[in-house]
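> example.struct
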């Protein structure tokens, strides 16, 4: 078979298979082009999940008429100089528009500020028409219809319209976070409208408040109430952004955002570092919430790894990982003790749901319960005739219990008043040895973050009071965190105790892995693991951490070699030691069911206030919940 040159249309369709995976990929490329053109207002309209129509309108600088044909030609771009490592724009490959035009019907209308009128080009299945004059305001309108009509096999891999429109929304939100000076709007017949107003003026420096406001538009207002600001720099790499406190977490990683020089990326190294920073303060099946912005010289990061530009490669990945982990952990340590607002909201919803049920049972109405309202709306059932209630006709379990006849007679004659109070006055107050006896504490403790302990209920939960809130503390979870942090401090303050092996363990490794492990030998020795070179492809282990006891040395060294190869760190051994410390803390802390004195409760609260990360236990569960007085008053209808 002879070698032949592929046609331009086939080449573009092959490129489209890498760049244009789904309608969301088209929106991403077009929105990035609009931002590179200096737009401050971008409007996206879709139909059929983007498969039938995608229209992106911006007020950017526009494209001159003599450059419109170049815009739909491969490898033509205005965003790249002769240095491929100096990439400062979102787009630079010059493949998006011709790739779209090869698999869909593409129309581009554009007008610059200096032009008297706009011009339009149309690409259908790779065939160019135009440019020709058209009516348009300053800016550009790109319309893509019948996506993948030229490659119908690709349509079989598309998801439902709802799924595709949701993916488009997520792409726009991910881009919008990095550009708070741009107003975004999404509309169409397949979705509900979404507006993301600009939070600052174009050209001005983006303030922390403006950035947090834009993030709140995407992640919700509750994120700003639980966010910690990040700002750190190391060796020319700067990290800014926001991350949430450990108790504010999610069941998946969809609420994690990373940006490299303003470009949204889905890089596993960055998200792995984010996960590592929360390794001992969040449950394994939960995910932290955060928005990270990394700024560094473009020459030290390669964004040209994949045509979609979602993956990057750092020249020094260890530096980036260390910066992310160190900055986040420092922010968590400096944040003090803070409860997640989601805990109080969940408690309020639980109380309110119980209130609805009680109200319904007492009133007999159908409108007080959401479940009943739904049932009555979907299936009609005739209501049985009501009978007037009276003590004589009521079921014995519903009849009032008369302690004596005189108060009951007075109640029936006088109605609700002193008679009922006289009946209540016959009951005695609880004794001092009850399960929730109040604890006396100095008034100045009310001004502390966790307040003054007032009671212990069910021999497990401490109830404390501040000036404006009620706090409930899980005594076992709280003390478990305190013991764990004390053990970690002891482990890090001095070299780890090691036990010498009678016979050194020889571990065979690939030559490059053996060199990596030996290069990290000083760090490993701090944790009680002594390794040295043993030939070109092996290491000898002479000492292991005493804390780990008998262990599989071969597997440990291989796991460390894999981690060093991927992240250039040897934190796996440290994590193992921390796991042992966490187990010791769990078994050595105050157990559930132990009665505590008032002085012990207040001492526990004061230690929690002084210990970083005490808002969650070693397993990631919250150690306490705070309910504001205003929320309590709202539950009782006082507000």
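> example.seq
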């Amino acid at each position: 078979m002879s070698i032949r040159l592929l046609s331009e249309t086939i080449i573009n369709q092959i490129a489209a298979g890498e760049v244009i995976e789904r309608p969301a990929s088209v929106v991403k490329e077009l929105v990035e082009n609009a931002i590179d053109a200096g737009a401050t207002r971008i409007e996206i309209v879709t139909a059929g999940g983007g498969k039938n129509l995608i229209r992106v309108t911006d007020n950017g600088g526009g494209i001159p008429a003599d450059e419109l044909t170049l815009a739909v030609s491969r490898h033509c771009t205005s965003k790249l100089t002769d240095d491929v490592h100096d990439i400062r724009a979102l787009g630079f490959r010059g493949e998006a528009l011709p790739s779209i035009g090869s698999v869909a019907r593409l129309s581009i209308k554009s007008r610059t500020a200096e032009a008297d009128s706009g011009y339009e080009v149309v690409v259908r299945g790779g065939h160019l028409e135009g440019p020709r004059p058209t009516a348009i305001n300053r800016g550009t309108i790109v319309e893509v219809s019948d996506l993948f009509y030229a490659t119908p096999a690709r349509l079989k891999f598309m998801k439902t319209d709802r799924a595709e429109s949701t993916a488009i929304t997520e792409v726009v939100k991910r881009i919008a976070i990095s550009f708070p000076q741009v107003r975004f709007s999404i509309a169409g017949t397949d979705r509900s409208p979404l507006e993301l107003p600009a939070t600052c003026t174009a050209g001005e420096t983006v303030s922390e408040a403006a950035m947090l406001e834009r993030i709140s538009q995407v992640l919700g207002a509750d994120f700003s109430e639980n966010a910690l600001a990040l700002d750190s720099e190391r060796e020319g790499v700067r990290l800014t952004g926001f991350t949430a406190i450990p108790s504010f977490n999610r069941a998946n990683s969809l609420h994690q955002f990373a940006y490299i020089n303003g470009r949204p990326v889905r890089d596993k190294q960055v998200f792995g570092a984010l996960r590592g920073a929360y390794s001992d303060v969040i449950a394994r099946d939960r995910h932290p919430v955060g928005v990270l912005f990394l700024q560094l010289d473009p020459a030290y990061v390669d964004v040209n790894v994949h045509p979609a530009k979602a993956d990057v490669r750092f020249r020094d990945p260890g530096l980036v990982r260390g910066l992310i982990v160190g900055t986040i952990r420092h922010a968590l340590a400096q944040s003090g003790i803070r409860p997640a607002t989601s805990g109080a909201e969940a408690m309020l919803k639980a109380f309110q749901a119980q209130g609805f049920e009680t109200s319904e049972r007492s009133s007999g109405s159908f409108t007080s319960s959401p479940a009943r309202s739904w049932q009555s709306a979907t299936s009609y059932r005739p209501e049985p005739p009501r009978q007037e209630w009276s003590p004589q006709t009521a079921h014995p379990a519903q009849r009032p219990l008369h302690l004596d006849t005189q108060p009951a007679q007075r109640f029936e004659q006088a109605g609700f008043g002193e008679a009922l109070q006289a009946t209540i006055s016959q009951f005695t107050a609880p004794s001092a040895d009850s399960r929730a006896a109040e604890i006396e504490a100095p008034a100045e403790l009310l001004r502390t973050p966790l307040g003054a302990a007032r009671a212990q209920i069910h021999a497990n939960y401490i109830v404390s009071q501040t000036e404006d809130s009620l706090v409930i503390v899980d005594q076992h979870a709280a003390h478990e965190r305190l013991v764990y942090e004390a053990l970690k401090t002891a482990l890090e303050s001095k070299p780890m105790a090691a036990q010498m092996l009678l016979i050194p363990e020889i571990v065979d490794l690939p030559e490059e892995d053996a060199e990596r492990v030996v290069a990290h030998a000083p760090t490993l020795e701090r944790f009680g693991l002594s390794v040295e070179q043993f030939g070109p492809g092996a290491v000898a282990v002479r000492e292991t951490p005493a804390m780990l006891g008998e262990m599989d040395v071969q597997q440990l060294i291989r796991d460390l070699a894999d981690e060093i190869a991927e992240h250039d760190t040897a934190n796996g051994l440290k994590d193992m030691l921390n796991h042992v410390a966490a187990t010791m803390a769990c078994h050595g802390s105050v157990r559930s069911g132990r009665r505590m004195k008032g002085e012990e409760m207040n001492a526990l609260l004061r230690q929690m206030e002084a210990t970083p990360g005490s808002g969650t236990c070693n397993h990631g569960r919250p150690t306490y919940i705070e309910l504001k007085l205003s929320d309590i008053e709202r539950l009782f209808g006082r507000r």
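> remarks
The radius of gyration is 33 Å.
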